[in-house]
Fold these 3 entries.
Entry 1:
Amino acid sequence: MKRHLGVFLLALSLTVGLTGCSGGVNGEGDSNYSYDIGTPIVRGNAFNDQGWALMEKGQYDSAITQFNKVIADNPTDDEKAEANNGIGWSKAYLGQLKDGMPWFEKAKDISDDAKIGLAGAYLQLASRSDMEQVIDLIFKQLGNENPHFKYVARRNTKVSDAEAHAMLAYAYAATGQDELAREQLDYAKELSPVWDGTTLDQIGKVVEFMLQ
């Protein structure tokens, strides 16, 4: 029963925290992502840059149009992954993270941001097999099985390194791997300059409740 309640609470916190409403770690947009609209990616991918600029303004449908231009313009593998990742996050902001899953799937082999988006969607789906997918995406694929991996977002996903570790902590707790869950939660706390009252705090309280 405790774990079922935890799933319900997490769905609420992730809806706030991983679809752009948390404003980052401290509520003021200070997540540890690296994002510079003026820095060209690969060959000066203007349409991808324009797409993310439109997302910053909340113009998600217009952003998708820009990302589709990339896909239609004989892109490199990296550019195509960036565009599919952008569509995934745009779809997520328009609805829920699960709405971006098909595009995250297309991008995840190249884009760590897509891995995080896809992991967030699986967290919201919340079955045990979904939690196992989260562990695979974050710990194995993104982190290369290093428990102290570092996630630095290439684009402004509004998900910090600490939040990635908190997501993994939840997935471990939900699959009964309590020791690993505590390790990830403690590490997330080390990484975050601010904890109380943040999305991280919300997720942490759910994880602590599940570990009782």
Entry 2:
Amino acid sequence: MKKVSLLIPVALAVALLSFQQIQTDLNASMERGKEIYQRNCISCHMDQGEGLPGIFPPLSKSDYMLADKKRAIQQTLYGVSGEMTVNGTQYNGEMNGYDLSDEQMSDLMNYIFNSFENKAGVTTPAEVKSARKK
């Protein structure tokens, strides 16, 4: 019985350290992503991701963006044009894509998906790579 009781605290400590490492990695990724956002996205989507109603869609609490991570990655990489409804508002515009590496794109998506009242978890470079059109 003593072996089992010793394993529980060890397992909890390992899980806590793993969580802390993931959070540290996410925070570093988000910092890099914030720089990319400020260079490329802020002029349309604004400082707090609020966009401009009817002109540039919001990224803050965006039902459209949060509904499909792969689509969000692809539209950021390759651009998007045409109609879309975001948080009940119709948009019909165009966004250019961005030539970013898998790591840069995952950093940008980590920033957007975990800022502006969004909580969408971690996006990895491997997810970006698999979202690229073949």
Entry 3:
Amino acid sequence: MIAQIRPAAFAQWTTQQQGRVPLVLDVRETWEHTTARIHAPDGAHAFDVLSMPMQEIPARLAELPSDRPLACLCHHGIRSQRVAQFLVHNGFDNVVNIAGGIDAWSAELDPSVPRY
């Protein structure tokens, strides 16, 4: 079972990663990422963001760090859930899904992120 993290609880999750900086894997299409994106804040709850459309992940799996916490993100949380399951099946052990996706991120955490 893949853990579900609501955007409102994301900062708390980042602090539980024992000093490892999480990577948000944005699995949306390029046009979606151009339309709305999240940004890592400066400070204690920092994270990195990597945009990699869902269909590219199997071919680019070796580019993903297996030693970092991964949080998968899409528009509403459905595609990212499938990607998170794929990653766990392929040996990644610290993977969560951002429930509600970037839409919930905008609603719960950062209203400056456009909704579409």
